TrEMBL record:
Residues 16-154 form the Lactate/malate dehydrogenase N-terminal domain. InterPro entries: L-lactate/malate_DH, Lactate/malate_DH_C, Lactate/malate_DH_N, Lactate_DH/Glyco_Ohase_4_C, Malate_DH_type3, NAD(P)-bd_dom_sf. CDD domains: LDH-like_MDH. Catalyzes the reversible oxidation of malate to oxaloacetate. NCBIfam families: MalateDH_bact, PRK06223.1. GO terms for molecular function: L-lactate dehydrogenase (NAD+) activity; L-malate dehydrogenase (NAD+) activity. It catalyses: (S)-malate + NAD(+) = oxaloacetate + NADH + H(+); (S)-lactate + NAD(+) = pyruvate + NADH + H(+). This is Malate dehydrogenase. The gene is mdh. It comes from Gloeocapsopsis dulcis AAB1 = 1H9. It is an enzyme of class 1 (oxidoreductase). It comes from the Bacteria. NAD(+) binds at G21, A22, G23, K24, V25, G26, D45, N107, V130, T131, N132. Substrate binds at R94, R100, N132, R163.
Length: 325
């Protein structure tokens, strides 16, 4: 007997994630969200045809990937309405030789415009910013949307920690499953990897690896993004960045209270005020449910404050470039 389909049967009550920017990071994240069967995904881009084509491609892969989520590709923000999470990946990636901060001028306008438009249609959403320079763009997106601070997050710490984790596992020749690493601070050369809090099955790596080697791994982590940009020559990393964003999306949608380092708004924690920067947080359905204050050494605190100082300077520069009403 034929099975009739009515339009009401096609209406989904699934959670909805909008990804603004259907480029490398955005489209990879869309695929990962579908394959984890987490949410319907709306992919939005300014390039007509690109998000629609990608969404169709993803819909055609569903039968093989065996999940039941929908993908919509669009250039129209009305299609994003009612999203639970909005992820901003719109903007340019850097080219070899560029710093992330060199993207500030181009990406500031894009982030303010896209975040404002998306949140206008999804005022209850949690906003995750991915576009670089990350800490500054997260701050601009918050200022532009006026969302409560706990609902605005920047993705960087999960990625930087994942890289540190990978380098530690490679160095020791052990399973990455046993390695945990944590990186705080800004998403740039001044990021603050914390070897004391990075472990192999609970054993601090400072007990397992000598200081010089740790310093080399820390330095490789700090330059992890640039290493890939130099290798690829066109664009920047996207598999690990998408996977890192996926972890945050999952923690929020499933209210997991995962302890993850994200760029969150500080109001006195670590001696810092009114700034988005990478710190350990508990992520749940409300966004940043709690900021954890680790005991840091004077050197670690000084490194965090130095990173914050640079972010502040760049925010000032960005604010002179874009109008935020
Ligand atoms: N926070 C992090 O750890 C990471 C950040 N990034 C950053 O994420 C951003 C995206 O990277 P990719 O996906 O590799 O770049 P991409 O160039 O592949 O994709 C960017 C997309 O944004 C779209 N776009 C630009 N302006 C737009 C607008 N006004 N409205 C809608 N769409 C717009 C473009 O058409 C393009 O499809 C870059 O700024 C990159 O530096 C990338 C990796 C890691
Ligand atoms: O390096 C870049 O420009 C992209 C990025 O933020 C990363 O991969 O960490």
């Amino acid at each position: 007997m034929p099975i009739a389909s009515t339009s009401s049967q096609l209406v989904s009550s699934s959670p909805r994630v909008t990804i603004v920017g259907a480029g490398k990071v955005g489209s990879t994240l869309a695929q990962q969200i579908g394959e984890k069967n987490l949410a319907d995904v709306v992919l939005l881009d300014e390039v007509e045809g690109l998000p629609q084509g990608l969404a169709l491609d993803l819909m055609e892969a569903k039968g093989i990937s065996q999940h039941s989520r929908q993908f919509i590709g669009t250039t129209n923000y009305t299609d994003t309405a009612g999203s639970d999470i909005v992820v901003i990946t719109a903007g340019q990636p850097r080219k070899p030789g560029m710093s992330r901060d060199a993207l500030l001028k181009t990406n500031a306008k894009i982030v303010v415009e896209t975040a404002t438009n998306a949140i206008a249609y999804s005022p209850d959403a949690i906003l995750i910013v991915v576009t670089n320079p990350l800490d500054v763009m997260t701050s601009l997106a918050w200022q532009a949307t006026q969302l409560p601070t706990q609902r605005v997050l920047g993705m960087a710490g999960v990625l930087d920690s994942a890289r540190f984790q990978a380098f530690v596992a490679m160095e020791l020749g052990i399973s990455i499953a046993d390695v945990r690493a944590i990186v705080l601070g800004s998403h740039g050369d001044l990021m603050v990897p914390l070897p004391r809090y990075s472990t192999v099955n609970g054993v601090p790596i400072t007990e397992l690896i000598d200081t010089t080697t740790i310093e080399r791994l820390v330095e490789r982590t700090r330059k992890g993004g640039a290493e890939i940009v130099e290798l690829m020559q066109t664009g920047s990393a996207y598999f690990a960045p998408a996977a890192s964003t996926l972890l945050m999306v999952e923690a929020i949608l499933l209210n997991q209270f995962r302890l993850l380092p994200v760029a969150a708004y500080l109001q006195g924690e670590y001696g810092l005020h009114d700034i988005f920067i990478g710190v350990p947080t508990l992520l749940g359905a409300g966004g940043v449910e709690k900021i954890l204050e680790l005991q840091l050494t004077d050197t670690e605190i000084a490194a965090l404050h130095l990173a914050a100082q640079e972010v502040r300077q760049n925010i000032e520069q960005a604010r002179s470039l874009v109008k935020i009403s």
